[in-house]
Write a structure and sequence with these properties.
By secondary structure, this protein is an alpha+beta fold. The chain has 10 helices and 9 strands. 47% of the residues lie in helices and 17% in strands. Helix 4 crosses helix 10 and helix 5 packs across helix 10. The protein is flat and about 85 Å long.
């Protein structure tokens, strides 16, 4: 916060806060302020609590060059600023020197920052973010209980086609392709007829998310997924054609490719914690060896 000292005290309004009076001076947005005063205060103080000033330059940083146009927001900010400074000023007067002694807390916070910064610097040179497929698979197999599905998921191909389209019946069968040749024919038709299509067999969808995307309804999700792969959903002058290539039911095991990134993050974080612990032990043992640590308590 910028502190602005003047030889001539600006005294406009005072209010009582507890026992003492704390002076708060509003230099703009006062109903009596003239346009000239507003211009003259462009780089000067805007509010004052005791000997502490809120400067126009600070409001400019917060609200931009046209901060005077943001009257409601600026007035609110000034009120909050003044209240905080008034409370701090009162506390400074009322509290004892012992109450105001935060040296222990400041030192503890400083040590925490030093420790964190040092650890991060060491991790920058020591932590590897590369996780092998073997590590991923091992973690997955050893922690399967952590990868239980909370909802049904599917892999699906779908198209949105005009219900009277000449290739409508062909698309019903072609979307169910099983080999690369039929797949190629299907996509050639999609491209030629300019039909909206999504067919990524590597992408998993949550079934409920898919229902929000496409207006299809299933009487019983689990029954359908266990017994069927194909469905259609009318949508005005169009029909959605859906073909489910794979599914996993709720409470089953998540597919590895769906949780791969999560596992990588977990493994890297485990390495991080192990490195931090190792670093801490190394520094501690070195300090003991160099007799930099002396413990005078012995039970």
């Amino acid at each position: 916060m910028i502190v602005y000292q003047t030889h001539k005290k600006l005294k406009i309004k005072a209010f009582q806060f507890g026992r003492p009076f704390v002076l708060i001076t509003m230099l703009i947005f006062n109903s009596c302020s003239s346009e000239a005063e507003l211009e003259n205060s462009q780089d000067g103080p805007v509010a004052q609590v005791g000997d502490t000033y809120l400067m126009a330059s600070e409001l400019k940083k917060l609200f931009g060059e046209d901060w005077r146009k943001e009257k409601d927001e600026v007035k609110n900010y000034i009120r909050i600023w003044a209240k905080e400074k008034a409370v701090a000023s009162e506390a400074e007067k009322v509290l004892s020197d012992e109450d105001k002694d935060f040296s222990a807390e400041i030192n503890s916070y400083k040590n925490s920052l030093l420790k964190y910064t040092y650890e991060q610097k060491m991790l920058d040179t020591s932590l590897s973010f590369s996780v092998s497929e073997t590590e991923i698979l091992n973690y997955f197999n050893l922690n399967k209980e952590n990868f239980e599905l909370k909802e049904n998921i599917v892999k699906v191909r779908y198209v949105k086609v005009p219900k009277n389209h000449k290739k409508f019946n062909s698309l019903r069968y072609m979307i169910q392709y099983k080999d690369s040749l039929k797949k190629e024919k299907f996509f050639r038709l999609i491209q030629k007829e300019n039909i909206f299509c999504v067919a990524n067999d590597s992408l998993w969808y949550k079934l409920d998310d898919l229902k929000n995307l496409i207006p299809f309804k299933l009487y019983n999700d689990e029954h359908f997924l266990r017994n069927y792969q194909y469905t259609e959903a009318p949508d005005g002058d169009y029909v959605w054609i859906l073909f489910f290539t794979e599914n996993r039911l709720k409470n089953g095991l998540s597919p590895l490719d769906m949780v791969r990134e999560k596992i990588i993050a977990i493994v890297v974080n485990q390495r991080k914690q192990e490195l931090i612990q190792k670093l801490s032990n190394t520094v501690y043992n070195k300090a003991l060896e160099n007799e930099e640590i002396k413990i005078y308590f012995d039970e």
